[in-house]
Amino acid sequence: MAALTPTVLDPAGYELPLEQRRLLRWMLYIGYAALIAGVFHGLANALSYAGISILGWFPGLRTYYQGLTAHGVANVLIFTFSFANGFLPLMTARALSRPLDRRFLWASFLALLTGNVLVIYAVVSNQASVLYTSYAPLQAHWTYYLGLVLVVVSTWLALASMLVDLRGWRRQHTGARIPLLAYISISSYLMWFLASLPVAVSFLGFLLPWSMGLVERVDPLLTRTLFWFTGHAIVYAWLLPAYVSWYALLPRQVGGSLISDSYTRVVWILFLLLSIPTGIHHQYTDPGISQHLKALHGVLTFGIFFPSLATAFSVMASLEIGGRRRGGTGLLGWITRIPWGDPSVTAQLLAMLTFVLGGATGLINASYTMNQVIHNTTWVPGHFHMTVGTAVALTLMGVAYWLVPYLSGRGLYSRRLALASSWVYTIGILIFARGMISGGLHGMPRRTFMAEATYYSSEWRLPGLLTGVGGTLMFIGVMLFFLVIGLTIVAGRRGEQPSDIPVSETLTAPALTGWEPRLDRLGWWFAAAVLLIAIAYGPFFLSYAPEAVSPGFRVY
Ligand code: HAS
Ligand code: CU
């Protein structure tokens, strides 16, 4: 066996100060609570495609769009970022064996909490039914924009707590390579920091003053382009914490190893470079953006596909090593030896398998001409429930099965129930996505309350039914997750928790000479990413003359 990576493994079992663990634990709880709160309207939406309306069951819900906004905001914005705010700093502290910066951590927690309160107020009072994309001229109450800005600020503060940690570590370890787990955790949020600036400009510079009545009009195309400038990269900000688990933790959980230190760093650098200059693939049908830029973003999107293909290879190799070490033989025999009885592992394996289909549908979205067929149809939610809705959400559920016990000091309440949750959820998503994808090919519209639509096509009948059945199973899966985690927190056996984070060994240690140490110059790579962005977005912003064209509309 090749050399292990000492900086990843040593010293084993570092524990954060209690106060910091508690803060991180509460950020994670906010995230999981948002996941659970958000899925109720998911169920209503799925059933509506099968012609069933349950909206009347939701006390206080005034419109379909109010519910859909709550679903999107809670599940893709609050859940994902609250989780990452707790998880990435925890991984960094573990890898560097140092406590985090206390002030930044507190500030991050308070910003997240305040942001949540403002957003919940705006959405629950039906003053922000603008869907998570927040397209102008649909106008929300100012608390909605400010609340989301605070959530973004909380991610910057979480990054700051990690960077301070890294600086302190570097001072004590001159010339040493950054431990891999810290490297991938920090660079995930470094990418997101850069990616989040355009949406911050859009919200703070345009939408917030407009919603407060300080300016009368905004430019829908400009704010939309700023949204998608952030909005493609945001999907990788959701995905990368899951990748952190797949690369650096899961191999240990299955008894395998991570195959290569440099390979992993190169994958994260590719995400830093290519995640952002691709956003216009969400705007292929928008007028006012040149065909050349659309084509360039299309080509770069095929580029950003690559690090995920590389991930499939690396993660599969780690799993194979684990399966073979556990006695698996033959071409595929190792698969049966992966510990499928461990709910944390199984959730993540099922998330990966679903992601193969999520990735494949992404390529079709990215193809300029094929996008014309599927844009604004249910194909797109079919795609993203297999990516963020499963690759990410189910992985984060799997992580909870060791992380919540680890942080709360209580053993997992029931492995069986946890396993059932993941299987039910996965069977659900496969049926649901089959419905949405096939319906989309027949033009079934997304973001539409089909149970009361005044038009219908007979080709939507079977897809609609599959969507309803699959969505119901997904809902049951999340409720089982809620049960397991809730019971773990209140009734899990004390003392049965894992004593450490499952950090993997790496087969090839990081080199101290040659080209590889340059991978750690994060500042340089950050600058290169800025340059690529300037090339991909510069022409639009240099040539577009924004006009204050639209007053706000509230159609709800
Ligand atoms: Fe996407 C629309 C293109 C990935 C999320 N995407 C969306 C929307 C969301 C979303 C939310 O080009 C809708 C936005 C809206 O509201 O309008 N997407 C892509 C491409 C990728 C991609 C090329 N998307 C994601 C991820 C998301 C996400 C990740 C969330 C986390 N997407 C698009 C485009 C649109 C779009 C267009 C606009 C459509 C339109 O017209 O509106 C790629 O990054 C995908 C790469 C993935 C892979 C898969 C790798 C597989 C792995 C698993 C390995 C499995 C193993 C199993 C090892 C190449 C890593 C082993 C197991 C054993 C048991 C052995
Ligand atoms: Cu995208």
How much of the polypeptide forms β-strand, as a percent range?
Answer: under 5%
Low confidence ranges: 1-11
| Secondary structure: number of strands | 2
CA-based shape = globular
The ligands found in this model are: heme-as, copper (II) ion
Query: Which strand order do you get reading across the main beta sheet?
Result: 1-2
Radius of gyration: 23 Å
Structural class: mainly alpha
How helical, in percent, are the residues? 55-70%
Order of helices and strands: HHHHHHHHEHHHHHHHHEH
Q: What's the N-to-C terminus distance?
A: 63 Å
Q: Let me know the average pLDDT.
A: 95
Tally the helices: what do you get? 17
In terms of topology, how is this protein built?
Elements: H1 6-9, H2 18-49, H3 64-96, H4 102-124, H5 142-172, H6 180-211, H7 220-231, H8 233-253, E1 258-260, H9 261-274, H10 291-325, H11 333-337, H12 343-366, H13 368-374, H14 379-408, H15 415-441, H16 461-491, E2 506-508, H17 522-543
Parallel strand pairs: 1-2
Helix pairs in contact: 2-3, 2-4, 2-14, 2-16, 3-4, 3-5, 3-6, 3-14, 4-5, 5-6, 6-7, 6-8, 6-9, 8-10, 8-14, 9-10, 9-17, 10-12, 12-14, 12-15, 14-15, 14-16, 15-16
The structure holds heme-as (HAS) and copper (II) ion.
Can you walk through the features of this model?
The chain has 556 residues and is mainly α. It has a domain at 374-501. The chain contains 17 helices and 2 strands. Helix 3 runs antiparallel to helix 4, helix 6 runs antiparallel to helix 7 and helix 14 runs parallel beside helix 16 (461-491). The longest helix is centred in the middle third of the chain and has 35 residues, at 291-325. The termini are far apart. Residues 1-11 have low confidence and may be disordered. Bound molecules: heme-as and copper (II) ion. Copper (II) ion (CU) binds next to loops.
